[in-house]
Amino acid sequence: MSKANSKTSSRYPQSLDLKHGKVEMAHGAGGKAMAQLIEQLFVEAFDNPMLRAQNDQASLDLSLAGVPFERIVMATDSHVISPIFFPGGDIGALSVHGTVNDVVLSGAKALYLSAGFILEEGYPLADLKRIVESMAAAAREAEVAIVTGDTKVVEKGSGDGVFINTTGVGVLPSGLSLSADQVRVGDKVLVSGTLGDHGVAIMSLRENLTFETTIESDSQSLHSLTAMMVEQVPEIRCMRDPTRGGLAATLNEIAGQAGVGIELDEEQIPVRPQVAAACEFLGLDPLYVANEGKLVAFCPPQQADQLLALMREHPQGQEAAIVGEVIEDPNAFVQLRTSFGGVRMVDWISGEQLPRIC
Amino acid sequence: MKYVDEYRDGKTARHIAAKIRAEVEPDRSYAFMEFCGGHTHAIFRYGIPDLLPDNVRMIHGPGCPVCVLPVPRIDAAIELAVDHDVILCSYGDMMRVPGSNRRSLLKAKADGADIRMVYSCADALAIARDNPQRQVVFFAIGFETTTPPTALVIQQAKKLGIANFSVFCNHVLTPSAISTILESPEVRDMGVVPLNGFIGPAHVSTVIGSQPYEYFAEEYQKPVVIAGFEPLDVLQAILMLIRQVNEGRAEVENEFVRAVTEHGNMKAKALVAEIFEMRPEFEWRGLGLVPYSGLRIKAPYAEFDAEKRFALAPSLGRDHKACECPAILRGVKTPKDCKLFGKGCTPENPVGSCMVSSEGACAAYYSYGRHQQRSAG
């Protein structure tokens, strides 16, 4: 990519000013300006043979997974977060983490990503470069290649800087089939760490809500944690990441799909004191606040302690905990045994707690 | 979390619950009303009913500022935003409360009205300063707790000469609402609502003090225990009420001594008195027209009164016919008695105001207490 390294090239009439330039309508119009942006920004950052070929599609070599498989796993996620840069991450890294996590929580190994950008006219190219580089770094860390993409530009006022859609493809190692409908009465519910960090980190930056906090988003790819978990404890029934709507939404989804009830133990649910305090202050419940780098897993009671110990040995699961168990309940209610000794419902969130968090 | 966890300690809770069980007289039944939505929320969130004996019943009172606002006031707020083209600033809870034809601020916002959610009335004043070419109205709601901050921003707006700012005032008064409940035929004559005492407001009392409740204890012979919003506060208050009933006392007791004094916050009261005066009457959802229960902006500050600045059309809005919010707010019915509860009326699509705010009895019951329906049949 020697050509791309020098920002002026004979192929393009103008140089791409990645320091002071702005996104222009021409960057999405299919002409030379678009080709230049793709080559000098996206291909440069995501660099891999498939992308370099600059075809309209990528043809994927799945044997790279190095494991026997029968099934391909695919997930898509659009990212519209505001603010675009936040403590602990940005929309670029988040767009990789979110989709990689959706793929790997099935037990799959994630291999490839597509990236679709919707850019707003006038958005600083320097910020776009930061985002793209952060995406590239996140992809390298998650061991996935960004192999195809798309760029559209909308008029100023029709977007909010940058929206990113990513689609992930992976393969499911033979023998694994994690799914919510496999959850059984008696199963234990585990979470991989503290809840609510991402949502509170975002909230701390939002307009009109400037309060000082040291909370960073937990945005991260969980690929190595999930790979270890399904390898060591293949009995795991189902895994999911409690993003929008928090743990409450995820558990209600699973309870509904499996036709079971879930009883949580409030005292076991890990929440950072700063997050608890911010939630208290804002009238939020950490159970409903979004996470971007945590998982919830269901496993048979016989393997629960072993799984917990394994998770705690992993850097991404040091604060893992068994937070509840699956009970019989035709209503598929999620309930919480409070630290007070009472029981209450943990219902779906109604309305929105935080707008545009991912 | 310091200063909070102490009041949520499970061990202490079980200890107080054991005392309650030991001290209730088995052939007596106890019915206490927690006036405030903050207490209702704590009771459900911490599962307090599970800790109480069967003969101790909590009645959820009308102390949720969002829930008591009648349909015409919500219609007026929507009218301000839609027809008068103002930037309407509102607390988040108000956004989903349905007015006439189930129209809410949130729906008006989706239709293009400039409605902004704020956490503080100071934010509304800042929006006015940032948008000098637009009229900005703060939709002021709440009991004595939220009134002093509203008074303060009106005072500031006058001082700073912010001409494009005004307040749509819906502040209401706790003692008049309690009087109305005690004077209601259901409580006084018919015995439909047996009421053996009140848990007095937490935050409201930090402002008005414990003294205003003396009248209820003396005149109506009902014990009042002022309590904080933490679950241990509530349990302790229930124990104190049970003791008063058992001993035949009707006194004002203060469980919330860490924040409430006899006369309250004199500075805040003086500020409120400077800016506001009583309305001869104000409509409450559930209670109807209650004399001297609401505040309006005094003449020297009339320029900041949105009701004077904008000509608002009178609304004839009424509650949904089947909605039992009015009876629930008076403690005559429980959410379970309402035909709409959990069917036509849910937090996602509320019909009545009690389903909107997390402090509303229906929403609290729906979100936290629905599982008990099974055991209760």
UniProtKB/TrEMBL annotation, chain A:
Superkingdom, natural source: Bacteria
Full protein name: Hydrogenase expression/formation protein HypE
Gene that specifies this protein: hypE
GO biological process: protein maturation
SUPFAM superfamilies cross-referenced by the UniProt entry: PurM C-terminal domain-like, PurM N-terminal domain-like
Ranges for domain PurM-like N-terminal: 70-171
Domain PurM-like C-terminal: 184-335
Family affiliation: Belongs to the HypE family.
Gene3D superfamilies reported for this sequence: PurM-like C-terminal domain, PurM-like, N-terminal domain
UniProtKB/TrEMBL annotation, chain B:
The protein's name: Hydrogenase maturation factor
Gene3D superfamilies: 6.10.20.100, HypD, alpha/beta domain 2
GO biological process: protein maturation
Taxonomy of the source species: Bacteria, Pseudomonadati, Pseudomonadota, Gammaproteobacteria, Oceanospirillales
Family: Belongs to the HypD family.
Pfam name, any one: HypD
Assigned keywords, A-Z: Iron, Metal-binding
Annotated signal peptide: none
Record's keyword annotation contains Iron: yes
One MF annotation (Gene Ontology) recorded for this entry: iron ion binding
Keyword Iron: yes
